[in-house]
């Protein structure tokens, strides 16, 4: 059986008001009496009326849509639990609003397809996460609509609105923990140098070693991926340098490093201690369970939405929000 949708005229007739009054109630206009507003709301409930989103967007010049732009490929997006946690937070915060979320994966934006879509009025604002210093197309997006960045950009601008984790503090906490465990020959596996989070975690790592009068045994790029972490660990072992600890700047890279250490016959943590970063679901399921730096990825997603909603309301939210980190000690150290 096909159930026909109720119309705005039927709602108006049921409520005993004009069609324009129903439209004003649906669009949140204050120019309606409370009595009329309640009559319309009851009629909407009785008739299961669903307002036409396209018509509302045309009338209000607002799409009621927000874009999450991720300049990564599909394998990276679906394979890294960090993104799942951030999206979960974004969706949770949007649930109580009229906004819908459009997820856009864009690597380089050839032909300006993504930029053209976002600048066309199809969305009211955007959240951009996992951006790199060569993702210049995001500047064109930010020039047309309100944007909030998940993570600091490599080239910081005063006008940017950013929600980030304390990546420098996380790098420091991981390295301090390894020193407290008596480790002195410490290597690190970083993310790509095109990302500020990678550079900040490396800065924290280096600062603690400098304070202790030590130098890194090795600094290898693991590209924030499991395979990249494994390849970086192989390079560290192949260098012939003695290593007794590794700080991997993501749990995915740490899992790859653990696999290589196991294959090389090295025991964790007896021979080599390992610390990751994220405290994703991966950390508790590695063998051994992974000591890591917890960053509030879901909370970051929620805060990204809150700041963007403030911008869309015409408010002036703070430009930089730094979320706290926490060392979570498990059996890998």
Automatic annotation (TrEMBL):
Any single Pfam family the record assigns to this protein: LacI
Origin: domain of life: Bacteria
Coiled coil: none
Signal peptide limits: none
Ranges for domain HTH cro/C1-type: 7-28
SMART domains cross-referenced by the UniProt entry: HTH_LACI
Name used for this protein in its record: LacI family transcriptional regulator
């Amino acid at each position: 059986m096909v159930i026909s949708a109720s119309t705005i005229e039927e709602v108006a007739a049921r409520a005993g008001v004009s069609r324009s009054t129903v439209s004003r109630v649906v669009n949140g206009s204050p120019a309606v009496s409370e009595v009329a507003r309640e009559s319309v709301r009851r009629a909407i409930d009785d008739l299961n009326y669903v307002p036409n989103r396209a018509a509302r967007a045309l009338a209000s010049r607002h799409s009621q849509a927000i874009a999450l732009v991720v300049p990564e490929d599909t394998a990276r997006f679906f394979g890294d639990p960090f993104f799942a946690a951030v999206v979960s937070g974004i969706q949770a915060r949007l649930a109580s609003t009229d906004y819908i979320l459009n997820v856009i994966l864009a690597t380089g934006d050839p032909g300006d397809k993504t930029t053209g879509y976002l600048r066309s009025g199809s969305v009211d604002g955007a959240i951009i996460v996992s951006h790199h210093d060569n993702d210049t197309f995001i500047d064109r997006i930010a020039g047309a609509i309100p944007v909030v960045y998940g993570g600091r950009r490599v080239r910081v601008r005063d006008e940017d609105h950013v929600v980030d984790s304390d990546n420098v503090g996380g790098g420091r906490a991981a390295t301090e923990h390894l020193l407290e465990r008596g480790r002195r020959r410490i290597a690190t596996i970083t993310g790509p140098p095109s990302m500020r989070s990678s550079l900040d975690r490396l800065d924290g790592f280096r600062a603690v070693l400098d304070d202790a009068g030590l130098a890194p045994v090795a600094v290898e790029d693991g590209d924030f991926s499991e395979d990249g972490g494994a390849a970086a660990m192989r390079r560290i072992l192949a260098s012939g340098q003695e290593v007794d600890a590794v700080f991997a700047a993501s749990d995915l890279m740490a899992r790859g490093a653990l696999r290589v250490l196991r294959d090389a016959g090295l025991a964790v943590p007896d021979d080599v201690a390992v610390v990751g970063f994220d405290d994703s679901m991966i950390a508790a399921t590695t063998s051994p369970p992974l000591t890591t730096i917890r960053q509030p990825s879901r909370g970051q997603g929620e805060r990204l939405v809150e700041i963007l909603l403030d911008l869309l309301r015409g408010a002036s939210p703070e430009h930089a929000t730094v979320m706290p980190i926490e060392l979570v000690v498990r059996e890998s150290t």
